[in-house]
Design brief:
Elements: E1 9-13, E2 16-17, H1 24-40, E3 47-50, H2 52-60, H3 69-84, E4 87-88, E5 94-95, E6 97-102, E7 114-117, H4 123-131, H5 134-152, H6 157-171, H7 181-199, H8 207-222, H9 225-233, E8 243-248, E9 259-264, E10 276-281, H10 285-290, E11 296-297, H11 316-341, E12 345-352, E13 355-363, H12 368-380, H13 386-391, E14 405-406, H14 408-416, E15 420-423, E16 425-428, E17 431-437, H15 440-457, E18 464-468, H16 476-481, E19 484-487, H17 495-503, E20 506-509, E21 514-517, E22 522-525, E23 528-531, E24 535-539, E25 544-547, E26 552-553, H18 559-569, E27 575-579, H19 583-591, E28 597-601, H20 609-641, H21 644-689, E29 694-698, H22 712-722, H23 726-735, H24 748-753, H25 755-775, E30 780-785, H26 791-812, E31 819-824, H27 827-831, H28 833-837, E32 842-845, H29 847-855, H30 866-871, H31 888-902, E33 907-910, H32 918-926, E34 931-934, H33 939-957
Parallel strand pairs: 4-5, 17-18, 18-19, 19-20, 27-28, 27-34, 28-29, 29-30, 30-31, 31-32, 32-33, 33-34
Antiparallel strand pairs: 1-2, 1-3, 3-8, 6-7, 6-8, 9-10, 9-12, 10-11, 12-13, 14-26, 15-25, 16-20, 17-24, 21-22, 22-23, 24-25
This protein binds adenosine-5'-diphosphate (ADP) and magnesium ion (2 copies).
One magnesium ion (MG) binds near residues 786 and 848.
């Protein structure tokens, strides 16, 4: 189509429109749906939409109206005048319009709506005649000047408000609505003066001139700095511009049979299939937003008797009759909208003297609960198919449904009452109310005491909230005893956050307003001081911290939820596994549909009361054993190179070293021997739960220092047990200290320097597997070596593990498939994945470490700066929450490709926190992973996200 024939304006009137809902790009969301509603026969006041393309042409013609627009506008005005039987500026019955912006994507910064356009000194007389209400007409007029002056000419609203305030004071009234016609007339004259002072010109009296200016102002708003910035940030590209909607005015403020309101076709909070909304009698659109009067629930409409008005023009009985008719009309409209749009609509309506009009509709936003119920019911109503239903629920939203929550009203009340103290990171969702404990030990003790007290009194036990600077593995017991965790420091992948999510426990992390004074057993949150035992409430989904207790309700697992998840399974291609360290976690994962354990961390098991001492003994003696063994081997070499008298001397030395070694070995091996059966028991428990499903067990990963005792008392006790001095223990602890432990002696580096530790773990895994197999359990063990950066590291660890596996199996006379693989979490492992794959049966991406090392961000310290990075849009997301596809994602994709080049059937999964994050799940699906693994509580989210990724593929292919 050539430029001269380009259609610039699309007309709409009841039953007939040039546009359709699919033309959103050209007509904007508002315009496309006004056209669509008109086509469907809904009562939309007539009007027309200037295309977004015209807005673009406005800019390409140097902010001039593009050719042809003026003529097309004239034609459409004429058409509108004909349709409505009214004329712009008429002194008897004038045509008045609203001018509304609206792009294809709704965005802030676009020009606000101007209502009542077309009023001047003559047409205001016409409006008076038509309404029989002078006061109303002049109020409309002053509103128009105010809106036009403010939104089109940028005159600060304050200037107008001053005049209104003065008039109210003069008249001795509280609200504008109480002013009379004479006052509004005065106000209009003063507003015009203000207009002139600010623009150096008279207020335009010619309605066509008013319209031209308003249209130009809408075009202009497309490129105001706020709108440009918004599009940049949200990477909104390829839009032409904003459309301009010019629509005949209808008046909800024309007396008591007029009203205005907003509605949803179903309840957006619960999904209940019933009209939902609010309305205000005798009011114009913007009054609802202004909040001067409280709107009524549409449920009350059939019983409306106008009781709140002192002089209704309608009798209570007539009012009830009219309003219940209006309610029926709205119910019909609800049905029409849903059948037509096949989704919940959020709409605006206005009735003028008992005549109902539709002014806008769009897809309604909703809670998770509502989204699920609505999607399932729409399928049952035959309006959508299952695929569409699955796509309609935002996976992240369903997390709300998996945990306990605050009662909404109770929480709102607490907010209003100023009970909110601070906000931290929403690290693990769910709500918690409990007594403050400031140390893990106290948390355990207090929880035990509360349980005992409850047993005696027969009342429910009070819960505990653990408040810490940050948590460490030593706090596990206390975290377990608590219902919620609040930390002052640490990010979304800090210890507290990760462990809490794993436990499905509420956690607010990195709350800078928390200041601990452990010595005095006090904590200050914002400006208030609390003692241990005081009650606070946490909302882990929002990060809010409240003083006192807020009422809670159980998570609602409605029937529709199960139905939707069942449907999702039909489209999911990628597997979903769970990260679980205990049989209980494994069971939780299984209950939520996990198909395996993708990460079982062995170190958490080390912290149990009776084990930690042996773990410490093992760790404190390991360096000695290693050092003595080296001396021994050096001596052996020297011996082989020496002859005569010197050789005898060396032999003597060797004997001495052997004695020393035997002594240390006794402690070291003794510890391993104690730990072996404990670990075996842990693994047996998990294998039994996961009968028939794979279980990936990661060998020891964290730096040793995390386990070491820093407390002098504990050091002394340990020394006694090991037959050494407290000083020797203290010295060893400080020797093991590392400057950068996360980049230090950990993961397979420990496995290489202290091979016996890994050997013990592998033995425990395989013996557990053998025992379970003998019980008839279908065991599928997979041994995972962490932190590999060079293929040779994996080769060494694998060889050692393989040897132990063979020994255990042959000794038991059992045959069993097992796998040995590695985590890909050091960037170098990605870069050399083809080499690493030679020794791996599987890869599992540890994207927490991979992100940490790719960015060089310490994940335990990101709370300090990453939130600011995200706020300032230096980063789009916290990369520890949403996988950084552009950067870290390349390392992942590369490793998948290189790994599979070496081994086409290499099994590949992800076990980092990202495994339960919807966008990251889609990414994993796209790069061809076999499964994602995440906290048990995120398993349903990952399943839904995976199904959506599958559906998107199908849609793209068809
Ligand atoms: P927003 O995008 O801010 O909702 P709208 O253009 O929808 O802007 O309008 C703001 C208010 O003005 C809404 O309450 C709307 O219903 C009302 N409104 C817009 N056009 C008209 C009209 N022609 N007649 C009556 N009210 C209108
Ligand atoms: Mg609107
Ligand atoms: Mg790691």
């Amino acid at each position: 189509m050539g430029a001269e024939t380009k259609k610039r304006i699309y007309f709409f009137k009841p039953g007939e429109a040039d546009g359709r809902t699919e033309m959103r790009e050209l007509l904007g969301g508002k315009g496309a749906n006004l056209a669509e509603m008109s086509n469907v026969g809904l009562p939309v006041p007539s009007g027309f939409t200037i295309t977004t393309e015209t807005c673009r042409d406005f800019y390409t013609s140097g902010k001039q109206w593009p050719e042809g627009l003026e003529e097309e506008l004239d034609e459409n005005i004429a058409k509108l005048e004909e349709t409505t039987g009214r004329k712009l500026g008429d002194r008897d019955d004038p045509l008045l319009v609203s001018v509304r912006s609206g792009g294809a994507v709704s965005m802030p910064g676009m020009m606000d709506t101007v209502l009542n356009l077309g009023l001047n000194e003559e047409s205001v007389q016409g409006l008076t005649k038509r309404s029989g209400d002078e006061r109303f007409a002049w109020d409309c007029y002053r509103r128009f000047i105010q809106m036009f002056g403010n939104v089109a000419m940028f005159i600060p609203n304050r200037n107008f408000e001053v005049v209104l305030t003065a008039q109210r004071e003069k008249a001795g009234v509280q609200y504008d609505g109480q002013l009379g016609a004479e006052q509004f007339k005065e106000i209009v004259q003063e507003f015009k003066k203000i207009y002139k002072e600010n623009t150096d010109e008279e207020f335009p009296a010619d309605p066509k001139e008013q319209l031209r200016r308003a249209i130009s102002a809408v075009f202009g708003s497309w490129n105001n700095p706020q709108a440009i910035r918004y599009r940049e940030i949200h990477e909104i590209k390829g839009l032409l511009g904003t459309a301009v909607n010019i629509q005949t005015m209808v008046f909800g403020n024309m007396g008591h049979s007029s009203f205005t309101g907003v509605g949803f076709t179903r309840n957006p909070a619960t999904g209940e299939n019933k009209l939902y909304g609010e309305y205000l009698v005798n009011a114009q659109g913007e009054d609802v937003v202004a909040g001067i009067r409280t709107p009524k629930n549409v449920d009350e409409m059939p019983e409306e008797r106008l009781a709140e008005f002192t002089d209704p023009q309608l009798s209570p009985d007539d009012a009830r009759k009219l309003y219940s008719e209006m309610y029926d009309r709205l119910t019909d409209i609800k049905r029409t909208l849903e059948e037509h749009y096949t989704d919940v609509q959020d709409f605006e309506f206005t009735a003028q003297e008992g005549e109902l009009y539709m002014l806008q509709t769009r897809t309604g936003k909703r809670t998770a609960l509502a989204a699920i119920c609505i999607a399932v019911e729409l399928v049952q109503d035959g309006l959508i198919d299952k695929k569409t239903a699955v796509m309609r629920v935002e996976p992240n939203q369903i997390e709300q449904l998996l945990h306990k929550q605050f009662d909404e009203d109770a929480k709102a009340k607490a907010e209003v009452e100023g009970k909110q103290l601070a906000t931290g990171l929403p690290a693990s969702p769910g709500a918690a109310v409990g007594k403050i404990a400031l140390t893990a030990d106290n948390a355990e003790a207090m929880a035990a005491a509360e349980t005992e007290k409850a047993a005696q009194t027969g009342e429910a036990a009070a819960s505990i909230i653990l408040v810490r600077e940050e948590t460490s593995p030593e706090d596990i017991g206390g975290m377990d005893a608590a219902v919620g965790i609040l930390t002052a420091r640490g990010g979304m992948t800090s210890h507290a956050a990760v462990v809490a999510r794993g436990m499905g426990k509420c956690c607010v992390a990195g709350c800078g307003a928390v200041h601990l004074d452990e010595a005095n057993k006090k904590v200050t949150i914002a400006t208030k001081q609390f003692s241990e035992g005081d009650v606070i409430s946490l909302d882990g989904a929002t990060g809010q911290v409240f003083e006192g207790s807020i009422a809670m309700r159980e998570a609602e697992m409605v029937g529709a939820f199960g139905t939707l998840m069942e449907w999702a399974e039909e489209y999911r291609k990628i597997g979903v596994w769970a990260n679980a360290d205990t049989p209980a976690d494994a069971q939780q994962g299984l209950d939520f549909g996990a198909e395996g354990i993708g990460l079982c961390r062995t170190e958490h098991m080390f912290f149990e009361e009776d084990r930690i001492a042996y773990v410490r003994q093992m760790m404190l003696t390991a360096p000695d054993v290693r050092e003595i063994e080296r001396r021994l081997s050096d001596a052996e070499i020297r011996k082989s190179q020496t002859a005569g008298k010197d050789r005898a001397e060396i032999e003597k030395q060797i004997e001495a070293i052997k004695g020393e070694l035997a002594e240390k070995r006794k402690l070291f091996d003794g510890a391993l021997t104690e730990l072996l059966p404990e670990q075996r028991k842990d693994f047996e428990g998990i294998f039994r739960v996961m009968d028939g499903l794979p279980v990936v067990i990661r060998l020891l990963d964290p730096p040793l220092h995390e386990f070491l005792p820093h407390d002098a008392n504990i050091q002394a006790r340990l020394a006694q047990r090991m037959g050494t001095s407290a000083e020797a223990v203290a010295t060893r602890v400080s020797q093991l200290r590392e400057l950068n432990p996360m980049l230090g002696h950990r993961g397979c580096r420990l496995g290489i320097t202290y091979p016996d530790i890994y050997k013990m773990q592998v033995q425990a895994i395989m013996e557990a597997a053998v025992n379970c197999k003998k019980e008839g359990v279908d065991v599928r063990p997979e041994i995972m070596i962490p932190l590999v950066g060079a293929a040779e590291e994996l080769r060494i660890c694998r060889d050692a593990a393989e040897q132990v596996c063979q020994e255990v199996l042959s000794k038991a006379g059992v045959e069993m498939d097992y796998k040995i693989g590695t985590m890909i979490e050091v960037p170098r492992a990605s870069l050399t994945a083809d080499e690493v794959a030679q020794y791996a049966d599987f890869f599992s991406f540890g994207t927490n470490d991979l992100t940490q090392m790719a960015f060089g961000f310490s994940r335990d310290d990101v709370g300090v700066f990453v939130p600011e990075y995200v706020e300032r849009e230096i980063l789009e997301h916290d990369p520890f929450q949403v996988l950084d596809q552009a950067g870290v994602g390349q390392l992942v994709a590369m490793a998948v490709e290189k790994g599979r080049k070496t081994k086409p059937d290499l099994k590949i999964g992800i076990c980092g926190e990202h495994g339960g994050e919807p966008r990251s799940v889609e990414f994993c699906h796209r790069v061809g992973m076999d499964y994602v693994s995440c906290s048990p509580f995120r398993v349903p989210i990952a399943r839904l996200a995976a199904a959506q990724a599958g559906i998107k593929d199908e849609l793209a292919a068809s």
